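User: What would this chain look like folded?
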Amino acid sequence: MTTTIKPLASTQKPALAKPHSEIQLKPVSREEFTLLESEWDTFHAQTQIPSPFQSWDYLSVWWQVYGDKGYDGKMFIARDDNGQIIGAAPLMITQKGAFAGSRGKFRHLAFMGGAGELLGESLEIPALPGYEEFIGEAVADLILDTYNGQWDVAYFYLVPETSVSTHAMLKKLAEHGIATKATSSLASPCITIDGTWEEHMESRSTKFASRVRYIQSYATRRFDMKVHAVENASEFDCVINHMVRLSMARWGDEAQAFHTDAFTEFHRLFAPQFFSKGGVSCGTIELKGEIAGTAYNFVYDNKMWGYQAPWDMKYKAARAGNLLHIWSAKNACDLGLRELDTLPGDAGYKDEWTDNEHTLNIYECAHPGTVGGTLFKVARKIDRMLKHKPNPVTSS
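Assistant: Here's the prediction, encoded as structure tokens.
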């Protein structure tokens, strides 16, 4: 499925907002970024689409773990006359070999944490209200000037369709010959939270509520189900060991989560750190005396983000996947959050639960002026011909 990039209406601009030609995006080193925790958290909470994958904790740990593994982080920050952060460009350029397969032959320009094995979601150009278009255009200038020729493929992963700043960047890039294309459009199913768990169940159909109660009752009677919510940061080392095991049990060699030492190291550092801020909600399901599944969610911007829920396929009859989803939904209600964003995934039961969705797009473009970009463009055309895929729609 392909989509066309459409102009988006920005929020009303403050009287003192500067045009992008006057905005200075200044580079920030990894060491400098580690000192900006409080300032970044305050700034990011006010942006259009605050995502845990662009929180200070996520980006700082990502930089620590992946910064020397073929992913060159390039953070830029813009401030107003009072020194307040008004926008940022969390970018990275991958070296050749950073990807597995044919992509490893090319250098990718992406949002920080948005390419490679550890992929963030709902990524955008963070900017304060009123500055979205200006910051987006300034980031485009940065890509066109400072990093021109240093990348072969621009790859922006799971960008919210409503991101004003990112679309402003893509539009300006297109005006200068870098015509980014939306290669995929994915739904991120969501559940609106409007009360307690009991109130939520009462708002659903009688058939739906009865089915949820039956799944829980059946698992308790036949599998001696026990549920445990992680309450201490020290538990995460053990829980992550379970997630490594369960990811392999659920997906085998095709597992894309907790499948490398670096992926696991990231979460061993990130989970307890983010948990200390109330940013992680994690629980385990025990069936027949063993941990059969784990729900590993983030809590950010008054929302729950369903990140990973691996479970052992031998407990399919117990509906382990459903049990994890039920636990997450109930926990979101108990925490008084406004929404549970299940994030894109292959679980069909999500559709039974959700009542709305966010659209996330993957944008891609081959650099028109590098040998690698030309080769990538040719390779993509051959791939589409062999697989009979339609051509992606170019941005306007």
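The two ends are 17 Å apart (CA to CA). If you want, I can go into more detail on any region.
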